[in-house]
Amino acid sequence: MQEALRILGSDAQLVELPEIVEQARHVRRSEENRSRSLPLTIRGLRKSFGDNEVLRGIDLHIPAGQFVAIVGKSGCGKSTLLRLIAGLETATSGTISFDEELDPADIRVMFQEPRLLPWARVLSNVEVGLGQERNSPDAQARAVHALEEVGLSEKRGEWPAVLSGGQKQRVALARALVSNPKVLAFDEPLGALDALTRIFMQQLLERVWRDQGFTAILVTHDVAEAVALADRVLVIEDGQIAQDVSVDIPRPRRRGSADLAALEGSILRQLLKSTDDPSNP
Amino acid sequence: MSVIETLPRARKALRLPRPDGLIPWIVPLAIIAIWQLACVTGFVSARVLPAPSDVVLAGWKLVLSGELARNIWVSFWRASVGFLIGGGIGFAFGLANGLSQLSSKLTDTTLQMVRNIPHLALIPLVILWFGIDETAKLFLVALGVFFPIYLNTLHGIRTVDPQLIEMGRVYGMTDGELFRRVIFPGALPSIFVGLRFALGIMWLTLIVAETIAASSGLGYMAMQAREFMLIDVVVLSILIYALLGKLADSASRALERLTLSWHPAFQKH
Predict the structure, then answer these.
(1) pLDDT, tens digit, for every residue of A84-101?
(2) What are the residues facing A108 on neighbouring strands?
(3) Chain B residue closest in CA terms to A163
(4) Do A87 and B166 touch (CB under 8 A)?
């Protein structure tokens, strides 16, 4: 180990090399994983609750394996869009289609709250994510593997009540991952966490997305989080897609880099401009 | 600091009983000691209250004659059978009305109306219907325990976290699995509250029913003793009721601790 460090030396090469390796790995993985994710096409999607029209015609195509972040002010309809994609609500009109017939276990949701069963041990909570395959002989092994993925395998026998907020959310992530979903919908899963845990969880999300290659749809109110994680940021305003920004910054992205900050700034400016507009109270 | 650290170790080494376990018994034991003292010194007349030693003696005589065991058994049988019938029906209605809108609309209003009748008010009617045999007592006990079990089961099921139910559905649970893995465990703490209420009502109802109309059982034994001015037997019956009540409560607590070990309130740290 020390030998290797000496060979690499301490010049600029050392900084750049792991990044190149990471990128190469990322490309290779996305090649491998293309079959494990699904594209998603939305046409003319509308949703009303009574007289209140929350979504006013969304047209959107998400290629397989893309990481899409949906941002917007609260009440703009971003969570409703996610719940429609996840099948938690039914659309008033319009269609959401995946490339193939969708098995329920192919699309998973991670909620803002962990929503763990308090009366089930951590491992059983993860097994819930297997859906109908829960009774298969390798169920437990798969659940343990998913827990290892989020770094919590030593907590498998604990009750959820003894875990911290971040740990609970990691168990919820393991539960979402255990069925190897092709689409994963995140409904502000990091909203309730403290700043440091949040950054750790963002890195974890990015890592599992790269490892598993699912199509990721992340709803967040945090623009910095959106540009740090996503390939593409959708800004929703008044029930419509106001901006569709692709984030071409190579991964791994360095938190607080100038590129990310510039992109974050431009998206935020757009969001704030619409708030200041006097015709739009 | 060092005292706190060394104390548990010393306790383990000496194998002393945990003092925490003894604390609840200090007050009852003190009361008995004072009571005995007051009787022996003649401060309280034996006609008003017999000394604890006399009560124990009366109990021993009844144990030897087999009368005590027989009466306790009869009362215990009535209590448990009545409890199982009434509790079972209450639980079934609680489940049905908690899970099904139709069932709830159909029966809840009726049950709420019946609930407001004190079940002991039915004693004259029950005696007219069933006489003073077992059916009367079982009916009253069953009616008494029905409502706390029904209400708390219903409440427990209705207040299960809807977010967990949504999660269960999204993760592909069938209705049966959803009930077994989410709804029932979620309702369990509330069901236990109902169970403990019901156990209290069970003993209360039985005492009243046996005192008024019975030819066996603890309540009957107490009433017989009153006829013959056997005040020590009367006090003995009351104490046995207290012990049985405590026993039922301990049993339900043990069950609670066993099934609710996930609950933060039952976790030992």
Answers:
(1) 998 888 999 998 988 777
(2) A184
(3) B264
(4) no
